[in-house]
Amino acid sequence: MDACGLIVEYNPFHNGHLHHLLEAKRESNASCMIAVMSGNFLQRGEPAIIDKFHRTRAALASGIDIVVELPFVYAVQSSDLFAKGSVQTLNEIGVSSICFGSESGTTSNFITSYEIFKEKESIFQEELRKNLHKGLSFPDASKFAYEQIGLATEEMDLSQPNNILGFSYIREILDHQLAINAFTVKRTKSGYHDQTISSSIASATSIRKQLFHEGNVTEQIASTLPANTEQQLNEYYHKTSVWHNWEQYFPLLHYRVMTMDHSELAGIHGVDEGLEYRIKKTAKHTQSIYEWIDAIKTKRYTWTRIQRIFVHLLTNTKKEHIQPLKTSESVPYVRLLGMTKQGQAYLNQQKKVMNVPLVTRLPQHSSFLLECEEKASNAYYSILKPSIKRQFSKQEIGPPIIIG
Amino acid sequence: MDACGLIVEYNPFHNGHLHHLLEAKRESNASCMIAVMSGNFLQRGEPAIIDKFHRTRAALASGIDIVVELPFVYAVQSSDLFAKGSVQTLNEIGVSSICFGSESGTTSNFITSYEIFKEKESIFQEELRKNLHKGLSFPDASKFAYEQIGLATEEMDLSQPNNILGFSYIREILDHQLAINAFTVKRTKSGYHDQTISSSIASATSIRKQLFHEGNVTEQIASTLPANTEQQLNEYYHKTSVWHNWEQYFPLLHYRVMTMDHSELAGIHGVDEGLEYRIKKTAKHTQSIYEWIDAIKTKRYTWTRIQRIFVHLLTNTKKEHIQPLKTSESVPYVRLLGMTKQGQAYLNQQKKVMNVPLVTRLPQHSSFLLECEEKASNAYYSILKPSIKRQFSKQEIGPPIIIG
């Protein structure tokens, strides 16, 4: 049985993802669709609106056969680590192809870009270093470095967010010579950062913004979502009275920072170059997450970067937790969140030949990464009422979700 | 000008304290009454109902001339460290006498007991060690050890809480040969732990219990409080809508523990002998502070001891913060919280001859202990609304309170 992998965040699972899934099915001709999905915190440093278990249900009901978790330590990271975790997880579970969305939409452009990049990598690294040294943000610094080596053209613009991610997947595959065929489909209409819902394929950002603004799934929002996503959004809210957003975590994060000293702060992943002083100083005068990030941000420290740091602070993720990942070749386990009957049939075969454990319940396997997973999950649920918090945390130790 | 020192917690400042103050004034014949007062967290490991600034106002309005702070690192501790911090602070500010309340009420009994104790100290320590080894709690272990050396008689019962504290003050004075004259007044009627208000001199515990039960200062409660205390209780509530109690801190403390690993927990002051596993394990199933302490407590780990540990967890107070205090001879500074005109006149003279800095605003003097003070204060105010939290935290950097 052939499997095709998708790399998704699902916040929430919208029509764009559905479109992508159908394209991937058609192009790959695979009989099993596997999604590696971010857990409760997303790449841009935000809590997911609803938890990973409810998003897993939406994904399975929409045509995905297997949902595996992108470990937390890889999820809230810049594109290199995010790509390493995603691609290596899909590789361990044995996909023969990976399909990713991009602004470019032309697979051959990515392959050509990779070849150019390898040829000029030393120039790129030198430019990048110089740009960072000037005080530019990482996105800007790498954008100008790509320009220098001719990778910011109309055909292949590596300053666009989905192209950057896609290029990172390609690099991970080709650098490690993985037996995976990668192809891309064009991200249509709404971009990654678009804030208004302008079509039936809206960006996750715009849907998210509208959801929090309206406080319920309006008809306009519903028109951009698969029915299964709408159902899970409503179900989660019905059970918890919460759709997660950063502001709800302000009291916890503020308390945490106000009881840390500078050296502890500097031990948190992402707190570099004396940022601990800026975080502490601004904390004294702030009354919301928004106000706080706004007070910290600089040309170099972008909004997204600070949001990621806030996730690491909230979840107590230290430099010592992340450092070893940068040099490790693969992932230490694959965690199964859910599957259909079709997915189960695939896994029954696949698990016999896997090189790393397939984890189906949290305490089953002991690993440093799973401890980080547990802390992240605890932090995510910490804003719920005690009785619901307890009940929802138990999902982590339950069996995977099986539907269909 | 002669000064007499009192060691108080003021939670709240009740008629018993007023009685004690009048007795102390009469007995010492001092012209200046100085109180060393616990800050926002009290010896038994509880947040004070209202903050130290409002309690300072009540104390000054009730006849105290100077209020200085018992540094946080000494305040939430067993009697030895508590006594060291209190007595040394009063010594640095130059009191010629100290008056403490006790169940015994006879000063000579304490002096005699000290002499017996010094003579038989090695037997006491050996008994104590053996009893602790058997798994007894510290209070029980020391009670039986005192019995062994004849210090649990009717005249001098060192199993009673105020006698224990008083004996610790005497030891601190005589061990260091401080030029301080100590005397005791009898604690009348209601004991330390009494839970009902039975007379106009009620215990702090009973007043506290009643206050939280009723949610306002009833006539019965008011009859046990000086008018100034009642006023400050009401004023604090009016400004913040809060009287502090442990349950309000449950979401923060639970979040904190759920995102710590075992080794971090074991670094917190008081978390010894594998207690980190018990704290983490019970956290998963608990929905309140009460339920949580009840699940952790054992014969050896008493309710009070766990409450103290919870304060250290909440305030992020580590073993490395407290360890050096045990061997230090004195306190590194004296922090002034408030004074009357009379107190000011005393301090104008006294500060010229003091051996340690007199700190009147928090950032004035840099010290490890003051950093702990700031973290404790931040933790205490963390349950207030953001705008009020910000305003109240600023009290720490303001000038001392001056009245009269």
From TrEMBL, chains A, B:
Keyword Transcription appears in the UniProt entry: no
Pfam entry (one): HIGH_NTase1
Catalytic activities: cytidine(34) in elongator tRNA(Met) + acetate + ATP = N(4)-acetylcytidine(34) in elongator tRNA(Met) + AMP + diphosphate
Residues annotated as binding ATP: 7-20, 101, 162, 187
GO cellular component: cytoplasm
Keyword Manganese annotated: no
HAMAP family: TmcAL
NCBIfam families membership: PRK13670.1
Family classification: Belongs to the TmcAL family.
Function of the molecule: Catalyzes the formation of N(4)-acetylcytidine (ac(4)C) at the wobble position of elongator tRNA(Met), using acetate and ATP as substrates. First activates an acetate ion to form acetyladenylate (Ac-AMP) and then transfers the acetyl group to tRNA to form ac(4)C34.
Entry protein name: tRNA(Met) cytidine acetate ligase
Organism phylogeny: Bacteria, Bacillati, Bacillota, Bacilli, Bacillales
